[in-house]
Write a structure and sequence with these properties.
CATH class: Alpha Beta
Number of domains: 1
Bound molecules: zinc ion
Number of helices: 9
CATH architecture: 3-Layer(aba) Sandwich
Largest sheet: 4 strands, parallel
Distance between the termini: 43 Å
Low-confidence stretches: 1-14
Strand content: 5-15%
Number of strands: 6
Radius of gyration: 17 Å
Strand order of the largest sheet: 1-6-5-2
Structural class: alpha/beta
Length: 245
């Protein structure tokens, strides 16, 4: 059954982009209230529009200063990506939905999450030319266990909508990492350094996508591997990120 869409595309820009696709989701990703075929309800949408994030990493910040300078999360750290952006803070109902999507087979959530990513892309990266989209990979064992890579479900849709090449094969996760929360900063760097391997990406500008950006370590490990294999520039995009307040 195809949902008939009567409201204007100008009010819901994602709808225009996804107009050819079946969009069955009917609840706001952020609060769970009914929000007929829009990823966010109007309350959460206005909250979303007021959020500020660090200019360089995806962290949501309280001070306006961090929008111009680096936030406490990335200050003094060398970043292998030009910029990182996320749609929303990783908390509450959105966090539950992301975990259901990632671990409990709720793959239908790819539609609203992809719609949210598309809007975030348009807000921050519109006008930039990308050579390809690359999803954050899972290690082979983890992929077999889960049966799908939730990030790849999102990047497939995003690449189709943005009419960009989808290139999961550019980045491999050669081994799974220990839970990073248990490690200190030095140990994490070590742990991630050898976890990824890039394929030839000479001179490419890439959009690297993940579902969750917390410490930024995973994104940095992956982006560094792509830079090592020749990528010219990396822009990172994720559904959720931590906040500094
Ligand atoms: Zn809401
Ligand atoms: Zn930052």
């Amino acid at each position: 059954m195809l949902v008939v869409m009567k409201m204007s595309n100008a009010f819901y820009p994602w709808r225009k982009a996804f107009s050819g696709l079946f969009f069955p989701y009917r609840n706001c990703l952020c609060c769970g209230k009914v929000s007929v075929d829009a990823p966010l309800c109007t309350d959460c949408r206005s909250r979303w529009q007021d959020l500020r994030s660090c200019r360089y990493c995806a962290t949501f910040v309280s001070s306006t200063e961090a929008v111009e300078y680096r936030c406490q999360n990335c200050r003094g750290v060398s970043l292998p990506f030009a910029m990182a952006r996320a749609a929303l803070p990783y908390e509450g109902f959105l966090r539950e939905r992301l975990l259901a999507f990632k671990y409990y087979g709720r793959t239908g959530l790819r539609w609203p999450f992809a719609a949210l990513l598309l809007e975030t892309f348009q807000q921050f990266y519109d006008g930039l030319q990308f050579d390809a989209i690359v999803p954050m990979p899972l290690a082979a064992g983890r992929y077999q266990e889960r049966g799908y890579n939730q990030v790849e479900l999102l990047t497939e849709l995003l690449a189709a909508e943005l009419d960009l090449p989808h290139r999961p094969q550019l980045l491999r996760r050669v081994r799974e990492t220990r839970p990073l929360a248990e490690l200190n900063r030095g140990e994490r760097e070590q742990e991630l350094a050898g976890a990824f391997q890039g394929a030839a990406a000479n001179g490419m500008r890439l959009l690297l996508v993940d579902d969750i950006y917390t410490t930024g370590m995973t994104m940095r490990g992956a982006a560094q591997a792509l830079r090592n294999s020749g990528a010219r520039e990396i822009y990172a995009l994720s559904v959720a990120a931590s906040r500094d307040f």
